[in-house]
Amino acid sequence: MDRKRAFLRNAVLMTLGSVALRFSGLWFRTCICSWIGASGVGIYQLIFSIFSLGITACTSGIGLAVTRMVAEGKGSRRCLRGCLAFALAMSFAAGAALLAVSDFAADRLIGTPAAAAPLRLLAPGLPFIAVCACLKGYFFANRSIVVPMVGEFWEQLATIGISYLLLTDTPLPPLPPLNALMAGSSLGEVAACAYVVAAFHFAVRRRGFAEDGGTGHVLHDILHIAGPMLTGSFLRSALFSAENLLIPAGLRKYGAGGAAALAQYGVMQGMVMPVIFFPMSLVTSVATLLIPEIAEAAVQGRNGTVQDSAEHAFRATLMFGFLSSAVLIVSADEIGTVFFGNAQAGNILRIMAPIAPLMYLDNMVDNMLKGLDQQMYSLKYNFSDSAMRVALITLLIPVYGIRAYLVILFFSEIYNASLSISRLLKVTRLNVDILGWIIFPAVSGALLYYVLALLKKAVAFFI
Which residues in 359-383 are b (16+ Cβ under 10 Å) and which e? Predict the structure, then answer.
């Protein structure tokens, strides 16, 4: 019972923190849109799509490796040291590579030489991101979510504050908008790392450090957990970057001008998708906390606990997803206008909102598969999904434009989620409850949609 109460307390705290974090991030995104416009947001997204390769190289799987190894009792001190050394080595290599290719990437891939300096400004933040990933994994393994949550808040606050100072009329030397945003991002990573390291040292002094109790080689354990994820995630991240670079290129071939193509891409990736992912912060919080719980239960052979966790996750995630989808559909126009001042964002959001339940469930299932040591299957599915998307984007967007990309996103999510869900059901031997998992949440979402639509019409009538 104490364990259950602790899990629920952590879930509530992390959920509230994630919602506040996502909301501040969404607000910051609206500020970015007002500062650099839709086409600028497109360039901003393309820069981060390339930078994501560096983040993947130094963090993918490493936090999970720490969480799993500590939760499974393989020793805290040695696994953390090994993971830190591994992550830092990868981060320095990734940062050096990013610095070396920044000019080529800006000129040939993004299409604007002005993107080279922002890419170089992001590279120094990679070692700090790597250290944070390891230490956050340690805190999650010990069911302590306050430090990671506060660390993300502090990073967000520092990033927003520094970017604002660099972009407004202050005594600091003025920088181009994109340079200021990237400098703020890197300095925010430094601030977050400083906090997490200090909190870690404080926790170790107060509680002590668990002695090495595991057997085997640390590097072997790290590579077993993080290796497949790193390889698969890096390949998928490369495909994801290629996908993002191909979208504006395809839109230009369809007939849109350079600025118009970047604007359409910016609306889709910089405005619509963050709004759809905003409610998912609730799901992500619980999904992250489920990893050590499921990993420990699986190691101890408590299959009933694993099944119960999976069943509750399916029910709650789909109910939340359908309700969120209803809210997004009804309020799409207002979100597009109020947050971004862009009517197209509202139209696209209304089209994309129905896929939200499946997106949220896919996120939850992926995290449960990681806890069950099934990350290799998850990566295979993600990789095949990304490869398929790149091929479809290359073929269809030059012919059908942004409409083709919307269809591709729907098809991709259905494909990926169906494979992941099928694997989880097979591993847990869980039977699908169609009425409780799907029909009841879908009907609830439909009822909420009609209630909100009627309220919206009533308010419009009286106003």
Answer: bbbbbbbbbbbbbbbbbebbbebbb
Residue 190: Cβ within 10 Å count: 17
Q: How far apart are CA 62 and CA 364, in angstroms?
A: 19
pLDDT digit string, tens, across residues 200-211: 888 878 766 555
> Which of 254, 145, 140, 138 is closest to 200 using CA atoms?
138
Q: Tell me: the pLDDT tens digits for 137-191?
A: 778 777 677 788 888 889 988 998 888 888 876 666 667 888 989 999 999 999 9
pLDDT for 1 equals 46
Cα 313 from Cα 315, distance rounded (Å): 6
**Quick one: tokens of 314?**
């399916």
Q: Could you tell me the two tokens for 1? A: 């019972």
Please give the span between the terminal C-alpha atoms of the chain, in angstroms, as a whole number: 51
Q: What pLDDT score was predicted for residue 23?
A: 78
How high is the pLDDT of residue 95? 93
